[in-house]
Design goal:
alpha+beta, 8-stranded mixed sheet, 5-stranded mixed barrel, 28% helix, binds 4-amino-1,4-dioxobutan-2-aminium adenosine-5'-monophosphate
């Protein structure tokens, strides 16, 4: 007999079926035992003679054969999708045993401290509310890919071991690559630009690495970057148009297909209004001054509290929980960023903020070979380290730009999670590679020929 899923049992009343899953709960009522059996589609009530399930405890994995019965009207459970039926067990087989569970990790509102939640990830991932976080993440990735394909972008795989630092700064992981110097990629930036020479518009979904020197609620050491790069742009604003389309498609996809997941978290997708407002960074600082009295007008970047305030402004003024902030100072952006010809101290760049946090960064790139070479030097790098990448421009690349969305940050903002670590099944940060680093022994590193 073929296994059927719990959700399918509602179409099989009166029939004998075989189901498999984990014991979610067990309730003993004298000679009868009620088991809620959990599989990937949800719960099913099993009614058994106690003799059939004598030693069976929570999280045991079972295979059960029996007859699907309709429940009497007053016994229907509206909380579960199979609530109109139950399975009268005739045969129960144990597929795997479980040790006694250490705490109630299936609780509806699992109120654990983050380190405990992560220390017990193999268990806590089974909780429906936790599991739903990763369903949302999967939908976001799929929706990004779908919009990219609809817009005729070509996908590619970007390498993660790289010889040069794309985004600048010291936050890179060094790799001892056959005793040569290499890095874990901070972004697929240089490779997506190279790919434009053949495909005109490209995307990639890839892990990237940032050796963040501190622990915050919004930084991971490894995260998923959803990257797009587009050539033959008429204006850098085309980039924001495409980014807006991706985000709007993403949120409508979640609204259409993830109501269950959104409602477990008691959230709605962020409002994006008719058109997401676009505002220059210096104007943002002026608005912040007027609204809060905080004068950050000389600061080269927005502070986290400024990002929250401007999102609040966008919601009140434009009915949008998203806002594009544009024209960041040239000094603060990587070497490849195109300066604004009207005001070269600022760039043709943007961040997209959502509910108070940056979720996307993008902008136009320098596509002129001589200007790019000069900028690499100006940023303190040696051009020989970028000669491979520079071929792209040496042999002609049209005006272009692109952007990258941080997957986990989008999940965090959509679900109102407190910490971006909750949005990754297996987060990496200064304190953890699955296990807490403080509990692991430090390795003595061999001296490499650097
Ligand atoms: O702002 P970032 O560093 O920009 C780039 O990587 C550029 N290559 C993008 C481009 O195409 N111009 O990172 C892009 C996005 C951020 O907006 C943020 O959402 C996310 O990646 N991000 C992080 N997410 C989690 N942890 C971190 N440490 C992150 N750093 C950036």
């Amino acid at each position: 007999m073929e296994r059927i899923l719990n959700i399918e049992t509602i179409k099989h009343t009166g029939e004998k079926v075989r189901v498999c899953g984990w014991v979610n709960t067990r309730r003993d009522h004298g000679k009868l035992v009620f088991i809620d059996l959990r599989d990937r589609t949800g719960l099913l009530q099993i009614v058994c003679q106690s003799a059939l399930v004598k030693d069976i405890k929570e999280e045991y994995v079972l295979q059960i054969k029996g007859i699907i019965k309709e429940r009497p009207e007053n016994m229907v459970n509206k909380e579960i999708e199979t609530g109109k039926v139950e399975l009268q067990a005739e045969n129960v087989e144990i597929l795997a045993k479980s040790s006694p569970i250490p705490f109630d990790f299936m609780a509806e509102d699992l109120n654990l401290k983050l380190p405990t939640l992560l220390d017990y990830r193999p268990l806590t991932i089974r909780n429906p509310k936790i599991k739903s976080i990763f369903k949302i993440g999967e939908h976001i990735t799929n929706s990004f890919r779908k919009t990219m394909k609809d817009l005729d972008f070509t996908g590619f795989e970007s390498p993660n071991i790289v010889p040069a630092v794309a985004e600048g700064g010291a936050d890179v992981f060094h790799v001892d690559y056959y005793n040569y110097n290499a890095y874990l990629a901070q972004s697929p930036q240089l490779y997506k630009q190279i790919m434009l020479g053949a495909f005109e518009r490209v995307f990639t979904i890839t892990h990237v690495y940032r050796a963040e020197p501190s622990i915050t609620t919004r930084h991971l050491a490894e995260y998923t970057s959803l990257d797009a790069e587009i050539s033959f742009i008429d204006s850098w604003e085309n980039l924001m148009d495409i980014c807006e389309k991706i985000i709007k498609n993403m949120f409508s996809d979640l609204e259409e297909n993830c109501q269950k997941e959104l409602s477990i978290h008691k959230v709605k997708v962020p409002l994006s209004g008719k058109k997401i407002p676009r505002i220059k960074m210096r104007e943002v600082q002026q608005i912040i001054l007027e609204r809060t009295g905080r004068d950050n007008r000389k600061e080269p970047d927005l502070q986290p509290e400024d990002e929250q305030e401007i999102c609040q402004w966008a919601k009140e003024k434009h009915g949008s929980e998203l806002v594009f902030v544009t024209h960041y100072p040239t000094k603060k952006r990587p070497f490849y960023t195109h300066a604004d010809p009207k005001d070269p101290d600022y760039t043709l760049s943007f961040d997209l903020l959502c509910r108070g946090l940056e979720i996307v960064t993008g902008g136009q790139r320098i596509n002129d070979y001589d200007k790019l070479t000069a900028n690499i030097k100006k940023w303190g790098n040696e051009t020989k380290n970028f000669s491979f990448y520079l071929q792209t421009f040496k042999y002609g690349l049209p005006p272009e730009g692109g952007f990258a969305l941080g997957l986990e940050r989008i999940v965090k903002q959509v679900l109102n999670l407190k910490n971006v670590r909750e949005a990754v099944p297996f987060p990496r940060d200064m304190e953890r590679i699955d296990q807490r680093l403080s509990t692991l022994q430090k390795k003595k590193t061999k001296k490499s020929k650097r």
